[in-house]
Design goal:
Length: about 260
């Protein structure tokens, strides 16, 4: 998205050329399809990452032996380059030699290999799984920082009053953690809505454009079809929509935190 915005003028794409193509956006059926796919991907991946990140943050917040080493290892998936990670997951889901088929076949759970990346539903699920594995540590790190900022005195006071762990979580931990959740939610929504490299490496937007996202659609028009005007219009509209959604979600989370 940013590449399209930055390179629009140097490549000779005038603002008037792109502005004249905005009317085509509302009548483009493919844009509606890829927008729905992008929204579904962002909703599924970010929801799972927030839930798993909260769970892992609660575990890593506790005191246990080798906690520092465990925290460092838990961040490794996030530290890996996305292209390298995506290629690894592509091998895992390969229908010929991938672990996702080989292990269930050996255990007798499958009778025949599944073309994980060759079917729309399973390809979408594979993308969500890879994205969740990659970015859950990032969410965990943000929520762990939020947990460490909560005063221990509050928990001790409620514990003296007879409150159990579950009640302390819903009355103290979760309300005070909402600002951190808002930060994680905003960052992850922006990243998930603009996802490109993971999808490009794992599926290329297939099969039959079933996993094509808005970023891939912009790339196709701007750099494959060399339709710079429509590519610029797509870039501006998509960037505005993505930031509006992320800002709205973050504002909603912050509003609930103040309530």
């Amino acid at each position: 998205m940013l590449l399209g915005l930055v390179l629009a003028v140097p490549l000779g794409i005038s603002l008037s050329q792109g502005a004249g193509r905005f009317g085509e956006l509302v009548s483009d059926p493919m844009l509606l399809k890829v927008a729905g796919t992008t929204g579904a991907f962002a909703a599924a991946s970010v929801s799972l990452e927030i839930l798993l990140g909260l769970l892992f943050a609660l575990v890593l917040h506790r005191t246990f032996r080798l906690r520092g080493w465990v925290r460092a290892v838990a961040l490794l998936p996030w530290a890996l380059p996305t292209a390298v990670m995506a290629m690894s997951w592509r091998w895992i889901f390969n229908d010929t030699y991938g672990v996702a088929n080989d292990l269930p076949l050996r255990l007798g759970l499958l009778r025949e290999p599944i073309a994980w990346l060759g079917r729309p539903a399973t390809a979408f699920a594979a993308l969500v799984a890879a994205d969740v594995w990659k970015t859950t540590p990032f969410v965990t790190l943000i929520l762990l920082a939020g947990l460490q900022s909560i005063p221990r005195d509050l928990h001790e006071a409620m514990e003296v009053d007879g409150a159990g762990p579950v009640r302390r979580f819903f009355w103290i931990t979760l309300p005070m953690l909402r600002p951190a959740i808002a930060v994680a939610l905003t960052f992850r929504l922006i990243q998930a809505l603009g996802i490109f490299d993971l999808v490009w490496v794992m599926t290329g937007g297939g099969p039959a454009d079933s996993t094509k996202t808005v970023s891939l659609y912009v790339y196709d028009h701007a750099f494959r079809y060399l339709d710079g005007g429509y590519g610029a219009a797509l870039t501006c509209a998509a960037a505005a929509a993505f930031f509006a959604v992320a800002a709205g979600a973050g504002a909603l989370a912050r509003g609930r935190a103040r309530a």
